[in-house]
Write a structure and sequence with these properties.
The protein has one domain: Winged helix-like DNA-binding domain superfamily/Winged helix DNA-binding domain (Arc Repressor Mutant, subunit A, Orthogonal Bundle), CATH 1.10.10. The two termini are 33 Å apart. By secondary structure, the protein is mainly alpha-helical. Helix 2 packs across helix 3. 10% of the residues are buried. 71% of the residues lie in helices and 10% in strands.
Length: 156
């Protein structure tokens, strides 16, 4: 049986490990953005498109936490770099559908190779459990982020 102190120490260690992982990922994202002559926000948009497939400009703005006016300039940059394409959304000629180009998919495949290199150090039998835990942590963090507001930060 583990004591409450051991659970707290384990949780603190897990948070520290997650923070370290996020910092490494952020450094990688900065390097990726620099190599593509894009902003870090642009690379987040690419990731959202990789996960969602096709998005409208408004959906992309919402998911990336950007003002709709800044999304237009961002999409111009990504389109010039041949990473995304804009097309008329089927069924609604007024809306645009944003998707990754073949080059955009190739860039994201390289980022997947980077992440896969980290998992190459883990025994294959452990990967399904790690993936399940990462999904659970992601869901919990998404929920906790929704509860973050100015009042909760003021208490700090």
């Amino acid at each position: 049986m583990t004591s409450q102190g051991e659970q707290l120490d384990s949780r603190t260690d897990a948070v520290a490990a997650l923070r370290s992982l996020l910092l490494v990922a952020h450094s990688f994202r900065q390097d990726l953005a620099a190599s593509l002559r894009l902003t870090v926000s642009d690379t987040f948009a690419l990731s959202h498109l990789a996960v969602a497939g096709n998005l409208s400009a408004g959906e992309l703005a919402q998911r990336a936490g950007l003002a709709p006016s800044s999304v237009t300039a961002m999409l111009d940059r990504l389109e010039r770099a041949d990473l995304v394409r804009r097309a008329v959304r089927p069924g609604d000629r007024r809306a645009q559908q944003i998707s990754l180009t073949e080059r955009g998919q190739q860039v994201l495949a390289r980022t997947s190779h980077w992440a896969e290199a980290g998992f190459a150090t883990v025994p294959a039998a452990e990967l399904p459990a790690i993936a399940a835990q990462l999904r659970a942590v992601t869901a919990a963090l998404r929920l906790a982020a929704g509860k973050l507001d100015d009042h909760s930060l003021e208490a700090l």
